Amino acid sequence: MVSTFIAENPFVSAVSMTALFVAAAGTGGYVWFNDRRKTIMRQMDELLYKNTATGLYNIRWFRKNAPLLIAADARSRDEERFFVMSVNIERLDLLKEVYDEDTLLKGMRENLVNVRKKYSWISAFCVSQELAMIYALVNLPPEIMPMTAAQCFIDDISTLTIGKATVNFEYVAGIAPVEKNHDGDVKHIMHMASIARGEAAFSGRKIGLYDEKFQENLILQKKMEDLMQKALQNEEFKVWLQPKYDLITRQVIGAEALVRWDSPELGFLMPGKFIGLFERNGFAVQLDYYMLERICQLQVKRQKAGLMLLPISVNQSALHISEEGYLERMKLVLIGYELPPKAVDLELTETAFVDFNTKETRYVAKQIIHDLRGMGYATSMDDFCSGYSSITLLQNLPMETMKIDRALLLAAEKSPRAEIILRGVVSLGQALEMNVICEGIETTEQEELLLRNGCRHGQGYLFGKPMPLEEFEKFVAAKNEQQ
Question: Which of the residues 140, 145, 174, 271 could staple to 196 if both were Cys, CB 3.0 to 4.6 A apart?
Answer without folding.
Answer: 174
